[in-house]
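Run log, item B.
One chain of 532 residues. Sequence copied directly from the ordering sheet:
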Amino acid sequence: MKQLAEMLGNSFPQFASALTGIIFIVFLVLQISDDYDKIVKFIKRLFDFRKYIDTLIYKKKREGFNRVLADHDFLGWQFELMKVIYGPLIEKKDEELKKHGGSIGFSTIKLDDSNGRSYSYESVSIRMPRVPYPFTGVCPKKELRTSPGLENAKIADLDKAINGGIITSFKRQIRRYYAMIRATIRYPRRLGYMLGEIVQDGSEAGKPGWHLTAYSGVYEHNVRTSHILEYEIYRLYKRVKHRKEWKSENLAALGRDRILKELPIREHLHKQFIRDGDESDILISGKHRASLMGVQAFVLIKNKSGSYDALRIRRSENVAAKPGFLQFIPSGGFEAMNDCTDFDSQWDNYSLTKAIFRELLEECFGQDEDDKHATGNNVSPDRLYSNEQIKKLVEMLENTEADRPNAEMALLGTTMNLVGLRQELSFILRVDDPSFSGKLIANYESRTAVQLVDICHMEEYGFWVRPKEEQTEGQKGKKGRRKKGKNKEQGENDLENLNCTSAGLFELARESSIYKEALEHGESKDDLVNVF
C-alpha cells in the first residue's frame, strides 16, 4: 500500500491523495467481504432499533396530542378562538350566499331541553339548495383539473402548482407534525379530490343551483397543508393556556390580528386570500392549500318497531383525525377506489355517487380497503354497483312502486371544520327496509360495532348525557379519573364528544323534510304504543 501511494504521488501528484483514499476504501471492502452479511444484519438491527424507539416516542406524543384535542377545556377554548377569527367572515359570507338561496353559520344543535341549552361547534354548516340522488351537476367533470405525473410528484412541487407556499415556508413545523402522525396514515399517496371552489349558479335552468370545482391530489399533501392547522392550534394552546390574556373569556379582547400572529401558517393562508381580494372566500374555497373534500351521510334505516335508526360510531384512538370522538357514518375522504393515479383513474373516480357508496361499503358493511378483489388497481370503480348492498340500495332509490320498500337520498350542502378548513359534502339517506341493517360491520376506524340509535331518542337532551358510572373505559383518564373539565354531577356529555362536522351534518339533517318525516313516523309509533 505504501509503495502504491509513492507511485501515485510521482505519477499523478495533483490526484494522489484522492486516488489513494479511494483505493484504500476498496481495499477495506475486499478485506471485510467475508463478513458482509454480518455487517448488513448489524446495521439493519441498528435501524430497526432506532425505528422502534421513534415509534414509542411518537406514540407517546400522539397520545398526548389526542388527549388535549378531546379535553373539555381545550374544546371550549378552541371554539372561542374560531369565533374571534371567523365570526366576522361568516357574517359577510352569509349575506352573499343568501342572495342565491344559501346560508352559512356556526354548526349548532338545540334539542328538547327544558333549560333551552344549545351546543355550538368549531365548524360551519353551509346550506345550499337540496340536490336529490344522483346529484347531477354538482361535480361536473369539465370543472376537474387533473394532475399529470401525480404518482411520482414531490409534495413540494404539488404545492407550487397551487401557489401554496406552506410546504416551503413551514418545513420544520410540518416535519415535526408528520413524524408524529405518520404511523396512523395508511395510504399517504391515495388519489383524492381537493376543493377548488363552491360556486353558486343561482336559479339557472337545468342546474342544481351550485357546483364544485376541484383538482386531483394526494392525501399526504392534504395532511401537510390542512391537518397541520390543527396541530398549530394545539401548540399555541400548550404555550398560552396558563396566561390570563389567553383565557377563553379574554380572546375577543386580544383580537383577530394578535391571534393570527401566533398562528403563522393560518395567517399565511389568510394573507393570500386578502391579496386575492376577499378574505371571507376562505370559507368556500380550497385555494392555497390542499383541501381534500370529504363525504358524509346521515343514514336512517327503518327498524322493526317502525321508527328510524341513525348509524354512528365512536372513533378508534388509532386514526389520524378526531380519535375517540362520536361520528355519524359513513364519513371519509372524496378519494379513489384504489391506488392508481393516472389520468383515466383521476377522471373515472371523480363521482359523488361512487364516493359516498364506497364509504358506505367500507364503514358500514365491512369492505376492506385492502381487498384487491374490490379495490385492486385492475378493478373498475363501477364494480361497486355489483355489490349486493349497493344493488339493493339503488333499486330502492329508483323504485316508484308504493307496495315495495323504497329509499330517498339528497345532498343538503356542506359542513366545514374551521380548524382544518376542509369541506365535508353532507348527505341524508333514508332506507325503509329494516333488513338493510342486517349486515352492518364496522371498520378499523371504529372503536366498537356500528351503533343504531333511534332518532326519537336523539331528539332528547337526556339521551346524550350519562351519569358518571356509565362512562366507558375509553372516556376515563388515568386510573379511571374523569377528563379535566368534566362536571362530576352531570357525567359524560356526548354532545361535547361529537365530531364537529358530524354535528353540522346532524343540524342539516334535522332541517330536512326527509328527517322530519322519519321523526314524525317514529313519534306516531310511540303514541300508538302508549295508547295500548
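Observations after the first pass:
- The first helix runs from residue 2 to 11.
- DSSP finds 19 helices and 14 strands in the chain.
Flagged for discussion on Thursday.
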